[in-house]
Predict the 3D structure of the following.
Amino acid sequence: MGLKRLLATSHISASGLAAERQRMEVIANNIANANSTNSLSGGPYRRQVMVFSEAFDMALAGGKYNANGLEGVKIKGVESDWSEMPRVYNPGHPDADESGMVTMPNVKLPNEMVDLITASRAYEANLKALHQFRQMTEQTLSLLRGIS
Amino acid sequence: MAVAPIGNHVTPPATGAGAPLPSLIPGMKALPSAADFGQMISDYMQQASDMQAQVGTEIERLATGESDNIQDVVLSAAQADLAVRMVIELRNRLMSTYQEVMRMQI
Amino acid sequence: MIGFPQHTELLTKLMEVSDIRHRVVSQNLANVNTPGYQRLKVNFEDELAKQILGGSEVELTREPEVVKDNSLPVRADGNNVDIDMEIGELQRNAVLYQTYAQLMATQFATMRMAIRTE
């Protein structure tokens, strides 16, 4: 049994921490670019969404869906949000078209804030699980104490 | 942990029995006087064993969710542990006293 | 041996189940924002209760079951993990684990004392 399997439970929590942290980066990027009318790919910034998927190793689980194969979460990828970009009337804007309309990024700040809070709560919860696992391990090891 | 009987086997009198022995710890019943120390130790050990069995019941009650607190099982385990230790201590004291008596020059 | 502590097997099994439950709850928490994910739970205590009520010898070799829990409502992204409920499970499980570990330590200490005396 390798050291990795011994600490498999903490690996699950660690994957959650890593995933939520990266998701928060994407959300922060959305917020920072909420008003960017010039993105790298040309045109206004399009909202990015990080997508997760469950991590599971069937080989370790021995063919069934049981506790041995649980590996936490993995990042499937970062996808663009193809919803409509709002157009606002702002003729003084350098990127305004002939009718004075500007196409703005499809980032809604309240939504991003909610996502940020969700990711933050999930991060804390995964951290708690990690701490608890360490505590449980220490308690198990303490059973050896007193044995000379 | 078999215990050899200490002293001779004496049939306790039918009437006017001696004062009851104190119970080891609260929760254990006081035993009637026994002239046979070996029998007394056995009885106390049986009580300690019963308390251990009670711990098992409490653990099961906690695990199945029948009990909603950990005090029951923890108190039960503490009492059982104490009972076993006291029986052992009692036995040791009686053994050493017996040996001392046997060593006495008459 | 009369009076000898005798519940180490049961406690070991309960600690094992607690360990598995912690792993499963960790998986639920790691996937709290995964689309389509259904929460997992561990079945052991109900089986134990059935065996006890049935009066038969408690069978400690049986493995706990890890199953999907579809009883909770699903959110828009198809995920049914309730983060507060999972954290509650985490706490409760931690208390139980600590209790079992302490009981085990007590049993060991008593056994050591019994062995040490002549």
In short: The beta strands of chain A are 48-56, 70-80, 87-89, 101-103. The mean pLDDT of chain A is 90. The radius of gyration of chain A is 23 Å.
